[in-house]
Specification:
Elements: H1 5-34, H2 38-42, H3 53-72, H4 86-101, H5 105-108, E1 115-120, E2 123-128, H6 129-154, H7 161-165
Antiparallel strand pairs: 1-2
Helix pairs in contact: 1-3, 1-4, 1-6, 3-4, 3-6
Length: about 170
């Protein structure tokens, strides 16, 4: 049995965004209960040169969105990085989920060998569709999702492994 690129991306993103949305909601509720300024959570960083919580959520969203764009050939929907509240982050996730959900299976499936070029300030990187998903997208997506979770946990939000996993 083979696993398609669609199955490795779209359902995985959707499930994990549901979990991310839930642990962010827990963070917001905890801040309100504890009298913690939400800005303290939203601006939290693991280290000064790392993006804050808002940036981690933005990058996770971008990872999913650009998979659909680069592998699926779907036209990009620009999302400015202007989120400053938990509500803004939830809206960003919702917009990303809607974009991912709109991707037809046939846009992703069969693109295992398609050329994908990632252009960054550090240069261009060439992949196949499969190597892009497995060697760049998935690690990058989970890095940012994990960091968002870790920032909340580090600040004292009572989230656990099942929150990260989406409650299974």
């Amino acid at each position: 049995m083979t696993i398609s690129l669609y199955d490795l991306t779209v359902p995985v993103f959707l499930r994990n965004f549901k979990a991310m949305s839930a642990f962010l909601a827990k963070g917001e509720a905890w801040a309100a209960e504890q009298g913690v300024d939400p800005a303290d959570l939203l601006g939290a960083r693991l280290f000064e040169d790392m993006a804050p919580l808002t940036g981690q959520v933005q990058r996770a969203c971008d990872s999913a969105k650009f998979t659909i764009v680069r592998v699926g050939g779907i036209e990009n929907v620009a999302m400015a990085d202007e989120e400053t509240s938990f509500a803004d982050l939830q809206e960003r996730i919702a917009r990303t989920v809607a974009f991912v959900q709109a991707c037809p299976r046939e846009a992703i499936d069969g693109k295992d060998d398609a050329a994908v070029t990632l252009t960054t300030p550090r240069g261009s990187f060439d992949f196949t569709g499969k190597s892009y998903v497995l060697n760049f997208v998935q690690p990058n997506f989970y890095f940012h999702m994990t960091t968002a979770y870790a920032l909340l946990r580090h600040k004292g939000v009572p989230v656990g492994k099942l929150d990260f996993l989406g409650g299974l």
